[in-house]
């Protein structure tokens, strides 16, 4: 098997967040498998010198040894499988949802431990890399190349409890030729064409919906009579419904007072509007927190059922 260095390891922000959430929500240490793909970079140095026209294999070897520009390997982690650390790793597991996804390596989450691979980690990664059934070919490979799962992601928590810094992680690649773990930088990818769908509906500005809030003229009595018409009532209900999406419980009539030259006299109304908006955000946050807790509880229940069916309990 070929033993080429991985020059770059990438992981999406959602995948890394899921791994960290699974680690911190578990009752003990966990470990699991990492899935994704490996591809060659397309950035190759161009030269007018005819003596620099080497073969693809020579370019790959020279880039690997000297770090110069050339075809380099990039690993992208897209998914994972986690189980409690006291269960053995399911090394024969295949990623059924995405046939193009291959086994890249494994990860381990251990609380309050140094970010150094242990002897057990070496044994596990050697077992992965020595199995011919786990070999794969990188995407867009310019020549036949067979790689083995060699990535290792180590997660840990600080030795002292901290409110802000709650986790640590470090990526490695196991090199068969040197029988050692090479530290690698882990790039968290949240932007780019492949992640555009995650932010397609995102808007940095949250304006109020377009509502027909007319300024009150000198004849307030006439405007009140106009508002009592059927059309005015329907329009008021529609505007109130749209306003409730931003600040639930704030009347549309009070919003109209904040428009015009007299708006400076209604500072209290504006503060009350902000309070309602904050209450709406707090309600949404609590709803998300409750639903996340239910999803986690269901995941734990499903895992217990899988262990029971597999006869691991």
Automatic annotation (TrEMBL):
Coiled coil: none annotated. It comes from Solanum tuberosum (Potato). One of its GO terms (cellular component) is nucleus. Transmembrane segments: none annotated. This is BRCA1-A complex subunit Abraxas. It comes from the Eukaryota. InterPro entries: FAM175, FAM175_plant. GO terms for molecular function: polyubiquitin modification-dependent protein binding.
């Amino acid at each position: 098997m070929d033993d080429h260095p991985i020059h770059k390891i990438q992981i999406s922000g959602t995948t890394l967040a899921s791994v960290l959430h699974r680690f911190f929500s578990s009752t003990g240490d966990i470990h699991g498998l990492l899935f994704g793909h490996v591809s060659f970079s397309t950035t190759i140095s161009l030269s007018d010198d005819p003596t620099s026209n080497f073969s693809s294999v020579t370019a790959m070897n020279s880039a690997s040894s000297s770090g110069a520009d050339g075809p380099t390997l990039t690993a992208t982690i897209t998914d994972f499988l986690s189980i409690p650390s006291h269960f053995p790793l399911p090394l024969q597991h295949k990623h059924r949802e995405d046939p193009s996804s291959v086994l890249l390596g494994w990860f381990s989450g251990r609380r309050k431990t140094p970010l150094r691979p242990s002897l057990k980690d070496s044994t596990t990664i050697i077992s992965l890399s020595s199995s011919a059934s786990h070999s794969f070919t990188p995407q867009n490979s310019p020549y036949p190349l067979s790689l083995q799962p060699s990535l290792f992601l180590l997660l840990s928590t600080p030795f002292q409890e901290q409110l802000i810094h709650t986790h640590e992680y470090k990526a490695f690649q196991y090199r068969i030729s040197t029988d050692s773990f090479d530290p690698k930088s882990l790039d968290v990818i949240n932007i780019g064409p492949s992640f555009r769908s995650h932010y397609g509906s995102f808007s940095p500005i949250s304006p109020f919906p377009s509502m027909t809030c007319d300024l009150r003229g000198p004849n307030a009595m006439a405007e009140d009579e106009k508002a009592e018409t059927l059309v005015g009532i329907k329009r008021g209900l529609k505007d109130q419904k749209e306003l409730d999406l931003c600040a639930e419980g704030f009347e549309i009539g009070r919003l109209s007072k904040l428009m015009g030259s007299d708006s400076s006299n209604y500072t209290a109304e504006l503060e009350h509007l902000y309070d309602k908006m904050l209450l709406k955000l707090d309600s949404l946050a609590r709803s998300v927190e409750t639903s996340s807790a239910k999803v986690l509880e269901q995941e734990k229940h499903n895992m217990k059922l899988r262990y029971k069916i597999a006869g691991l309990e």
